[in-house]
Amino acid sequence: MKTIKIAIQKSGRLNEKSVDLLKKSGLSFENYKSSLISPVNNFPLEILFLRDDDIPEYVQDGIADLGIVGENVIAEKEVDVTYLQKLGFGKCSLKLAIANHSDINVLADLNGKSIATSYPVILNNFLQENNINAEIREISGSVEISTNLGLSDAIFDIVSTGGTLKSNGLKPFAEVMRSEAVLIGKNGIAKNPVVFELLQRIQSVLRAEQTKYVVMNASKENLPAILELLPGIKSPTIVPLATADWVAVHTVIPEKDFWDKINRLKTAGAEGIVVLPIEKIIL
Ligand SMILES: Nc1ncnc2c1ncn2[C@@H]1O[C@H](COP(=O)(O)OP(=O)(O)OP(=O)(O)O)[C@@H](O)[C@H]1O
Ligand SMILES: O=P(O)(O)OC[C@H]1O[C@H](OP(=O)(O)OP(=O)(O)O)[C@H](O)[C@@H]1O
Ligand SMILES: [Mg+2]
Fold first, then answer.
1. What is the pTM assigned to this prediction?
2. Which one of 1, 86, 144, 282 has the largest count of C-beta atoms within 10 Å of its C-beta?
3. Which of 119, 160, 171 has most ligand 2 atoms within 8 Å of its beta carbon, as the pocket-test mutant?
């Protein structure tokens, strides 16, 4: 199979999780901070370590076949690439924010005002869609400080916990887009067998991360009530225990309603519940 290239962030918010995902997908490679390209020893893939801003265009132009990057950066670069998979990390929003004491109350109040951002394209599109005529001041970082410095009336930047806004005396005003890290490919690459294989592996890791393997003991008397709580599972495994009329139930539970489900299983009579991480789920 012909070797293909994937571009990931060299350092920053997405680097570690991108490396982790590829390693969990069974790829063996060195993650030297000094090298910009790493061959994968056991898969026809090379990893390019880049600034995240460059990844969408590298993929669009086919310099890299695949890339892992935030949807925010893809939207800002307005590239034409294929979305292959949402990856569930690097979750954040792009928001307009204003000073706590600002006299801006509704979107129209932004008319004639200045807004500092590192995302001028996304902001400009949003302002145009809403017929707002504001001045965009492009700055490359530390956007949150610009209002305090008198450089702008509002800011437009990434918000996750909201901590950075808060510590700069700002409050969110409007959410313009949500973003997470995604796997993208150059158009047409989805048909490539190496990409197909890699995507299968990545999806098996993502599925496993959203699920826990759970083993619990129950008396046969309580079994129907317990099984009732495990919908969507075709057939939980039921193993007899040495103690008469007791069984062990093996099943998988989605992470998202995990505690709710566990509490209901306990109420239904499940005992000695053991929870294990799952490495991969291959369908
Ligand atoms: N606070 C956050 N929480 C969650 N995800 C975030 C956060 N900040 C940024 N991101 C996501 O991670 C991506 C990379 O963020 P980072 O701050 O590392 O970018 P950068 O400084 O532009 O990096 P580079 O040096 O590669 O250009 C962002 O484009 C966004 O998708
Ligand atoms: O809402 P919060 O959880 O506070 O996150 C938002 C902050 O996170 C990002 O910066 P980062 O910390 O990555 O630093 P950087 O801007 O120097 O890359 C982003 O640029 C915001 O400033
Ligand atoms: Mg960047």
1. 0.93
2. 144
3. 160
